[in-house]
Amino acid sequence: MRGENKAVIVLAGMIGAGKSTYTKFISEALGSEAFYESVDDNRILEKFYENPERWAFSLQIYFLNTRFRSIKEAFKHENNVLDRSIYEDALFTRINYEEGNMSDAEMDTYLDLLDNMMEELDNMPKKSPDLLIYLRGSLDTVLSRIEKRGRTFEQVEGNDGLLDYYTHLHSQYDDWFSDYDKSATLVIDINQYDLEKVTDAEKVLSMVNEKLATVRNEARVG
What is the pLDDT of residues 77-92, one digit of tens each? Predict the structure, then answer.
């Protein structure tokens, strides 16, 4: 992608929705750079699953920092796909707060820091993504994918508290998406499409290209 075909695309969706897989697929198809959320380098993530009350705040600050760094780089290059948006961070933090994993003081501190970071993004030449792709699917589909990818600390078997957390988070995603207003959006039903199937992958890429064409056309008219 060159010139007017540059675009910043961010993926959004539940844990296990397939954001990294879609990021790889879309970035390779469009010839853009991929930005991935690092799990292997995250020293806090597994600790969070073991003890959410102790580590929730630290984990959300870690994510906020790494995603802020990624989106700043993405806005500079203007030709990339990010597998997680900074705009979702407040949802995860609010769920942890509602689950009792964060105190009022921690929640207030997080929101103040998030607002400060958003103000910094507003001062950049590019202020928001061109497109947010929401991977929407049933809780059963998400849980099946979490089980399939096999990260031990993410598994719900023998951990009713974790299943409750996933259920709570999943129940709030559509409301979060309804309130999102930073860019154009595209919804992909992960119950319906499987990127391992060639015909599904072609349909997904067609939807992305059509949406990007619409976004570019509206930008020209505007």
Answer: 878 999 988 999 999 9
Q: What is the pTM of this model?
A: 0.92
Domain-embedded: residue 133: yes
Which residue range forms the structural domain that includes residue 186? Answer: 3-215
Q: Which of 40, 83, 89, 122 is catalytic?
A: 83
Question: How many domains, the chain?
Answer: 1
Is there a domain that residue 220 lies in?
no
**Whether the Cβ atoms of residue 54 and residue 47 lie closer than 8 Å to each other:** yes
Q: Which of 131, 124, 157 is nearest to 143 (CA)?
A: 157
The yes-or-no answer on residue 112 being catalytic is no
Residue 129 domain flag: yes
In terms of Cα–Cα distance, which of 121, 124, 108 is closest to 60? 108
